[in-house]
Amino acid sequence: MEKGRISVRQVVVLTFMFTLGDMLQLFPSIVSSESQQDGWISAVIVMIAGVFVTAIILTTFRFAPGLTLIESCLHAFGNVLGFVISIWYLFFLLIDCSYLVREIGGFMTTSIFITTPLPFVNLLIILLMLWAFKAGLEAMGRSAEIILPLLLIAITILILSLLPQMNIHHFKPVGENGIVPILKSSLLGTAFSFGELFAFLMIFPYVKLGSNMNKEVLFGSFAAGLIFSIITAMCIGVIGPKLTAFSTYPMYTLAQKVNLGNFFQRIEAIMALAYLITTFFKALVVYYAFITGTVQLFRLKDRRSLFLPSGILIFGLAVIIAPDVTYYLVELVTPWMFWDLTNGILIPLFLCLIYSIKQRMVKSEVQK
Questions:
Q1: Alpha carbons 318 and 277: distance in angstroms, whole number
Q2: What's the angle, vertex CA 93, arms to CA 281 and CA 101, rounded to 5?
Q3: What are phi and psi of 264, to 5 degrees?
C-alpha cells in the first residue's frame, strides 16, 4: 500500500486544484446556462455550499480517521452492503477518470492539436498519469505545490487584463427569471465542483495530520469557490451571459479577448495550460482513489499489477464514454449531478449517521 505521507499543506493544494479541475473551463457555462446574467449569484451560493460539502467529507473522515472510504464502507455497512457500495464508488471513479482523460484529449484536439488523432492524445495522457501515480503520493503533493503559484499568476493576469473590458450592463436585470433558475444553477455548480471531493477520503489517511487540517482544507475549498465566482463574473461581464452560457469553453474564449495596447494579447495558450494542469491533477487523484480502493477491496498485495489493465480500460472507456464535451453538457449533466450528490453528500451523511449511532451505543454499554 501507500508508503508515502503528504503534509496538510500539500493536501490543501491538491484539494484546491482538484476542485478547480475541469470546472476551471466549464463552471461559468454550467451556472449561466440556467440563470443567465445571474450566474454570478449562483457562483457565490456555490462558494458557500462548497464549504458545507467539504465539511461533510471532513466529518466523515473524523469518525474513522485511520480508514479510507472503501474501508469505512465495509466497516460501517458490513461486508455485503459495504462491498456493493464500494463497487458503486469504484465504478464511478473509473468512469470519472475516463471522462476526464476524454475531456483533456477533446480540448487539446479541438483547440490546440487540431490534426492530432484523439486516441493518440488520450494515450499520452494515460501514460503520464501512470508515471505520476508510480512516483507516489508524495511526488504528487510536491508537484502540486510547485505548480500552484504559476497557476495563480496565470489566473491573476487574466483577471487584471480584462477588468477594463467589464460591462456592468451584462449583469442587468438582476433576478429577471426569479430564484428557481439561480438555485438550480447553484445545485449543478455545487455537485460538479465539490461533489467529487469524496475521492480525498482515499487520501486523508496518508496525511501527516495537523491540528489545523480541517480549517486549512475548508479554506482551500473556499478559495476554489471564490475563483469560480470571480471567473464567472468576468465571463458574464466581458463576453456576456448568452455567449458564456452557450460556449463550451468560456474561459478559453475569455482569454482570447485580452488585448492591452495591441501588445499584450492572445494569452489563451496560458489559460489552456492552466486548465490542462488542473484537470490532469483531478484525473490523477481520481485514478489514485480508484487503484487504492480496488487494492483494498479485493485485498491485492501489489497495486502495480493493476497498472496495465487499468490503463487499457481507461483508454477504451475514454474513447466511447462520450462523443464530445458538448454531449456531456447537454445529455449527461442532470444524471451526473445526482450521481455526484449521492456519492459526495448522501452516502457520506449515512456513514456519519451510522458511526454516530455506533458511538452512542458503545457509550451506553460502557455506562451500564
A1: 18
A2: 50
A3: -95, 105
- The C-alpha atoms of residue 190 and residue 19 are separated, in whole angstroms, by 10
**Per the confidence metrics, is the pTM higher than 0.85?**
yes
- Contact at 8 Å (CB) between 80 and 300? no
Task: Report the candidate in 40, 255, 21 with the shortest Cα–Cα distance to residue 158.
Answer: 255
For residue 259, list its beta bridge partners: 265
DSSP string spanning 13-67? HHHHHHHHTTHHHHHHHHHHHHHGGGHHHHHHHHHHHHHHHHHHHHHHHHHSTT-
Q: What is the pLDDT of residues 288-332, one digit of tens each?
A: 999 999 999 999 988 888 988 999 999 999 988 877 766 776 777
Q: Cell for 256?
A: 482570447
Domain made up of 8-367: CATH architecture: Up-down Bundle (1.20)
Measured CA distances, 253 to 25, 137, 189, 272 (Å): 10, 34, 20, 10
Per the CB < 8 A criterion, the answer to whether 7 and 206 are in contact is no
What residue spans define the domains of the chain?
A: 8-367
| Rg for the chain, CA atoms, rounded | 21
